[in-house]
Amino acid sequence: MLQKRVYKIFNQTSDLGVIVKGQCLVELFQNSAVAVFNIMGDFVSSGNLVKLPISLQAENNELLLRDWLAELIFLSYEKHILFNTFTFKHLNLQSLEAEAIGTFFPPDNFPVKKEIKAVTYHQLQIRHSKSGYTARFVLDV
Amino acid sequence: MERVINKVNQNIWEIPQTGKMRVPGRIFASEDLMQILRNDASLDQIVNVAQLPGITGFSFGMPDIHWGYGFPIGGVAATDIETGVISPGGVGYDINCGVRLIRTNLHFDEMKNKIKPLIATIFGAVPSGIGSHNAIKKLNLSDIQKILMTGAQWAVENRFGTENDLNFIEDRGCLQGADPDIISKRAIERGLSQMGTLGSGNHFIEISKVADIYDDIAAQAMDISIGNIVIQIHTGSRGLGYQVCDDFIKVTLQASRKYGIEIPDRQLSCAPLTSPEGKDYLAAMRASANFAFSNRQVIHSLIEHAFIQSLNISPSELGFRCVWDIAHNIAKIEEHDYKGIKRKYCVHRKGATRAFGPDYPELPLNYKSIGQPVLIPGDMGTESYVCIGTKKAMAETFGSSCHGAGRILSRSQAKKKGANINHFKELEKSGVFVMAEEKSTIAEEMPFAYKDVTQVVNTLYETGIIRKVARLVPWGVVKG
To answer: Is residue A1 in a domain?
Structure first.
């Protein structure tokens, strides 16, 4: 089961706004991914685990976060994997190398309850303060 | 600080042109609807859209306007094709999300006890929601190339419906100028197994009865009468369209910088219509729109077969025919005579419906004298409207109107409000039988999550932008 309470939903009339916190950038990216897959639906790992490497570059950490989430969603839908563990070999403001680990489900039994069409750029932001990092993004659902 | 909004006259409001706005904002709303809107973020989005280069006239908000991403939902912007831009955010991720209305020979009084098995048959025939696939055999690359080029024509050639259906689709179900070679491999992959599937969220198939007719001549042209059973299909270009939008926002983010275009929201990234980036997006968007036209045509055919199977009747007894099929997330190059100057514009309609008036040359013969049908679905518990466009719409809104009721509550607010309600039972008590792939969707889509569609439609009706033809009440619904 995916862990909860690493994120909160804010009201956005047509779509779904998400606020995520993390002590460091790695935790922020991990928690953001956890939030996305938690929104897609709670599921029980069947033990059919798959690991996928992900390598991305972007102009800044906000766009990198968006691309990271968009990549995970694309891989999830195309390969019928629901990810729940995310490890980073490298993450800075403009690039990342990570591994996403999840459970493969047969296409006819893909237990997603909420379709996320896209991770939008609307109000996308990452803020850094003494207490850590906060990300805000809007999902098109 | 409350935003300045001036009342122009009944149901028309204006946000004055200030700061970086190139045109004023114009909102169509009754007093009651404006009360809802006053502090809504969608008004900021109207101001943002007003800053796009080449925007002409106004940045419009229709009465169903609500906070979206980039453009507001219910936003319309016409940009000059020589000096203006095209923005993927002005179309949205679900390119050519739209609505099709189908008429039948069936009468509600003869059908009263047949809805449950009928909806169950349709639910089985049209896969819906995330991961839905294989409604028809998986497409190959040759199929998808043809679909992206020819739209609904491909479906008809593959025996999903008839040639006559094409006469009753905007642009005959095919936008010219599509280029499949611009579509990414990822987008193609996402489309391969999704032809004939219904999207999730607010997408639906609805069986309704015609409850009221307001315009006998227009209703006759559409071949609908009181008591008739009709069907609405609301879906779009599925994963293929989402991916194309995602791909091209990256392109237009770079293009905005390259061409020195200042944008107030990254989701409004854009490219000049004359630039290679703008032309590429237009060609890719058209191809995606063609996928959506084909998708609705295939679903039309799957529903027709479900009716025939469930009711054990012949196609001629059923009399299934497309009344009209519209795109409400789209950008189209159209010629408009605006303020006495005839020019071509790129009309972005994000959650807005084309509402061309009478005498538009491309309308089918049936509708040439009355204007284009405008399909405005409400929520699944109340009602929907069939309207027609007017010459006033051509003069004042670049031939555009609203697209639905418009959300008033966010999804989480709707879920909270309906936490202790058995939504299926509530709807059934009001005479609507619903089947849904994902039950939690129903809580988000309950009538209280939406504005009053009658108020929305009447706002535009009273301003003369649309004319009302018929009111439809829901009877059976399939949700994604």
So the answer is: no
Specify the residue for token string 């799957």.
B302
Domain of residue A131 covers 8-140
What ipTM was assigned to the predicted interfaces of this complex?
Answer: 0.91
Cα R_g (chain B), whole angstroms: 21
Contact B266 A122 (CB under 8 A): yes
Give the 3-state secondary structure of residue A79.
Answer: helix
What was the pLDDT predicted at A1?
43
CATH code of the domain covering residue A51: 3.55.10.10
Rg, Å, chain A Cα set: 14
User: Which alpha helices (H) appear in B13-107, and where do they start and end?
Assistant: 31-37, 41-49
H runs (alpha helix) in B312-410: 315-318, 365-368, 391-396
Q: Which architecture does CATH list for B6-479?
A: Alpha-Beta Complex (3.90)
Neighbours of B16 (CB within 10 A): 11
Identify the H or E element spanning B140.
none
> What is the CB neighbour count within 10 angstroms for residue A24?
12
Strands (E), B250-372: 271-272, 321-327, 329-338, 341-350, 353-354
**A67, part of any domain:** yes
Residue of A nearest to B129 (CA): A115
Residue B227 region, left (φ>0) first, then alpha (ψ -120 to 50), else beta? left
Number of domains in chain A: 1
Give helix A61-79 / helix B238-258 axis angle, nearest 10°. Answer: 160
As given in the structure block, the two tokens for residue B375 are: 């399909």
Q: CB within 8 A of A104, min separation 6: which ones?
A: A48, A49, A50, A79, A80, A81
Contacts of B70 in chain A (CB under 8 A): 120-122
- Domain membership flag for residue A3: no
B1 pLDDT band, cuts 50/70/90, is low
B234 catalytic residue (yes or no): no
Report the relative pairing of strands A49-57 and A95-104 from DSSP bridges: antiparallel
Q: What are phi and psi of A132, to 5 degrees?
A: 125, -155
Q: Note the pLDDT tens digit of each residue in B223-279.
A: 999 999 999 999 999 999 999 999 999 999 999 999 999 999 999 999 999 999 999
Give which of B37, B39, B67 to mutate to test A binding, by max A Cβ within 10 Å: B67
Residue A7 near residue A43, CB atoms below 8 Å:
no
Q: Is residue B400 helix, strand or coil?
A: strand
The answer to whether residue A103 is domain-embedded is yes
Phi, psi for B437 (deg, rounded to 5): -65, -40
Could you report the per-residue pLDDT of B180-236, keeping only the tens digit for each?
999 999 999 999 889 999 988 889 999 999 999 999 999 999 999 999 999 999 999
Enumerate the domain spans of chain B: 6-479
What are the structure tokens assigned to B331, written together? 């950008």
A118: amino acid identity, one letter: A
Q: How far is B473 from chain A (nearest CA, A)?
A: 24
